[in-house]
Design goal:
This protein is an alpha/beta fold. It has helices at 20-30, 49-57, 83-93, 112-118, 121-137; strands at residues 14-15, 34-39, 42-48, 71-72, 76-78, 97-102, 105-111. The protein has one domain: Roll (CBS-domain). The chain has a four-stranded mixed sheet with strand order 1-2-3-4. Strand 6 and strand 7 (105-111) form a beta hairpin.
Length: 138
């Protein structure tokens, strides 16, 4: 099974100059915890509810553009990536969400929960066995 089969195709995006309160409001309105950041058609970052809490609210600095708190160079996978490969990527990078691209264009977002719910048992077991093997030998 491929990431394209389980990803969310509806993705709320912002630009780097979008102010943080507006991003937080979009998250609340859409009931989401992550928003990709683009510069034109180019993906430049990602901002999560955790980024907002730790990099802005905790520092009492919320009236800033999202580029000041986003994580640059987010982890991404191609839509043709298998569920098992995507899970290994998440574990390797210690993330729970991946941006999904086709020809360097953002086409979706996939969460760990999406992968676990949509993945085939054999593929999930294969990913876990591979991870176990990598952690024992590397």
């Amino acid at each position: 099974m491929k990431v394209a089969d389980v990803m969310s195709k509806r993705v709320v995006k912002v630009t780097g100059i979008t102010m943080l309160p507006e991003v937080a409001q979009k998250m609340a309105d859409e009931n989401i915890g992550v928003v990709p950041v683009e510069d034109g058609q180019r993906l430049v970052g990602i901002v999560t509810d955790r980024d907002i809490a730790l990099r802005a609210v905790a520092k009492r600095s919320i009236d800033v553009p999202v580029k000041d708190v986003m994580t640059p160079n987010p982890v991404k996978v191609a839509s043709s990536t298998t569920v098992g490969e995507a899970i290994r990527t998440m574990l390797q990078h210690k993330v729970r969400r991946l941006l999904v691209t086709e020809h360097d264009k953002l086409v979706g977002l996939v969460s760990l929960e999406d992968l676990l719910e949509g993945g085939e048992e054999a593929e999930l077991m294969s990913a876990l066995k591979q991870l176990h093997k990598e952690t024992r030998h590397g």
